[in-house]
Amino acid sequence: MNLTLTIQRLENASHIPKDEQFTRWATIALEGRKENAEICIRLVNKEESAELNQQYRQKTGPTNVLSFNSALPPALAEHYLLGDLVICVPLVAEEAEAENITTEAHWAHLIVHGCLHLQGYDHELDNEAEIMEKLETELMVQLGFNDPYGV
User: What whole-number distance in Å separates Cα of residue 85 and Cα of residue 43?
Assistant: First the structure.
């Protein structure tokens, strides 16, 4: 797996993982499904997350992760641009505390979850959610974390 990962750190916090961790988690989420990929991870505050959530999903308030698939024309397919993930840094810590899990586990889950979205997985319909959650659980266990859905 050949992954090019760009991380835009527009928000700082002590619980933000190192680039190597982001790369490991994304690589595991892509392994066996993508040979080459480019992803940008943008770390934002609640305000930017809320703006993007409203603009692109018509939902009020910030959200933990947004995924934006690349829409390159076929002529540019060789660029391997998979898309962008936008993660709301303050929400990661708040949700981890509320769910009584480590921030590292929550970060890993959001990266895995977002990377699966970039590959076309979804959870809008029950059968899609079942497939995606099963794969997320397998990947999180492979990474050494617990089942993120607690089943």
Answer: 8
Nearest-angstrom CA–CA distance, 8 and 6: 7
Q: Domain containing 81: what range?
A: 2-142
* Total domains present in the chain: 1
Helices (H) and strands (E) in the chain, counts: 5, 4
**pTM passes above 0.85:** yes
In a domain, 43, yes or no: yes
Radius of gyration of the chain (CA): 15
Tens-binned pLDDT, residue by residue, of the chain (151 aa): 899 999 999 888 899 999 999 999 999 999 998 888 999 999 999 999 999 999 999 999 999 999 999 877 776 666 688 999 999 999 999 999 999 999 999 999 999 999 999 999 999 888 999 999 999 999 999 999 999 998 5
